[in-house]
Amino acid sequence: MTLTSFGPANLIKRSAETHPLTWRLRDDGEAVWLDEYQAKNGYAAARKAFADMAQDDIVQTVKDSGLKGRGGAGFPTGVKWGLMPKDESINIRYLLCNADEMEPNTWKDRMLMEQLPHLLIEGMLISARALKTYRGYIFLRGEYTTAAKHLNRAVEEAKAAGLLGKNILGSGFDFELFVHTGAGRYICGEETALINSLEGRRANPRSKPPFPAAVGVWGKPTCVNNVETLCNVPAIIADGVDWYKSLAREGSEDMGTKLMGFSGKVKNPGLWELPFGVTGRELFEDYAGGMRDGYKLKCWQPGGAGTGFLLPEHLDAQMYAGGIAKVGTRMGTGLAMAVDDSVNMVSLLRNMEQFFARESCGFCTPCRDGLPWSVKLLMAIENGEGQPGDIETLLGLVGFLGPGKTFCAHAPGAVEPLGSAIKYFRPEFEAGIAPVSAAVPPLARPIVVGA
């Protein structure tokens, strides 16, 4: 699968009017550097923002556009920007780009950073102007070595062109931008854990309030936004709120377009920029091409490993937050995974929960102890050694680790697919329960070290 797979040519033709994120992409998949980016109207939005718009007007425009965070939580971006302090005496503020894309089955930000690094830089430059931040960091997943190389080159190009550094575009505004590679922890996707890691601390989430807008990096006001979120900003500034809203399908409560994808044993796995409100069926059949010959769709996840499983009959749901919520889960990152009929759901969930258990920061008891407990039970069921009551215990853990029960959203996301898998495929779990005569006393059952 390539990162430039955009579906059959007769289905999609990218243009600035319909594909604000991807229309500049090269057909050969190579990065778009400064000269080519500017020839494709790059940095025109930044020039407009600096020359013609007051800083508060930029914030209001983004708020009016309805842009929401694209990292999975979906919080309104303009509202988040509005939380930054208005006090002009606070002259040290930070803008953080969350590029720690470690959600399994998600690779959309990688494509943007590798192939359109200047789009992210322009988005951050406009955002910094709006938020009065003098320094920015791109907190990048450490394994994204190509993205790091391309971003660093693009930063140097922007500096040489006077688009970063001192007195940008003659405005008197200064903005420095740094690429910071992380050490490889999933929990850094949580914004306050990211801040702790950036400061050189252990990547544990912080208690909120205070929120980063008040007390963030080194105690200063900080705004954290996702890569795809920031990449939407230039088009909104350049072409306006009404145009941006018009991109979404009728019925969608989310505005603009979204990078969506499908992986698994589909005929055309890939990534596409599509309007909010397309159906899962369009994404699966028209773009991903349906299942490969010899395979049947068993279930699918709409947006990364931390979203619940859905059945084939749920494919008619519209792909936006509210549309996916109607069928019982979350939009997440918008990159779906097809599970074929050869997959055992117990084994799949055991693999997922092992990942989530390993990536827990260990700060709160439900997550630290509950996730390894789920792995222990799933391993027993997978090996046909499950005991009566194990499924009920797993469902109890889904409740104990749900929203509002833990310090951050890591555990709720980890158990959401588990709960949905048991809901839809309980017989597969029951098949791993040993006969009562073979039951092992709980205290005699092996402890799985490191699970």
TrEMBL record:
Q: What class of enzyme is it?
A: translocase
Family statement drawn from the similarity comment of this UniProt entry: Belongs to the complex I 51 kDa subunit family.
SUPFAM superfamilies, A to Z: Nqo1 FMN-binding domain-like (SSF142019), Nqo1 middle domain-like (SSF142984), Nqo1C-terminal domain-like (SSF140490)
Q: What is this protein called?
A: NADH-quinone oxidoreductase subunit F
Q: Which cofactor does it need?
A: FMN; [4Fe-4S] cluster
One GO MF term on file is: NADH dehydrogenase (quinone) (non-electrogenic) activity
Give the protein's biological function.
Answer: NDH-1 shuttles electrons from NADH, via FMN and iron-sulfur (Fe-S) centers, to quinones in the respiratory chain.
PROSITE patterns assigned: COMPLEX1_51K_1, COMPLEX1_51K_2
Which reaction(s) does the protein catalyse, per the Swiss-Prot or TrEMBL entry?
Answer: a quinone + NADH + 5 H(+)(in) = a quinol + NAD(+) + 4 H(+)(out)
* Domain NADH-ubiquinone oxidoreductase 51kDa subunit iron-sulphur binding: residue ranges: 346-391
SMART domains annotated for this entry?
NADH_4Fe-4S
**What organism is this sequence from?**
Pseudomonas monachiensis
Q: Which NCBIfam families match?
A: nuoF_fam, PRK11278.1, PRK13596.1
Q: Which UniProt keywords apply?
A: 4Fe-4S, Flavoprotein, FMN, Iron, Iron-sulfur, Metal-binding, NAD, Oxidoreductase, Quinone, Translocase
Q: Does the keyword Translocase apply?
A: yes
Q: Please state the Enzyme Commission number of this protein.
A: 7.1.1.-
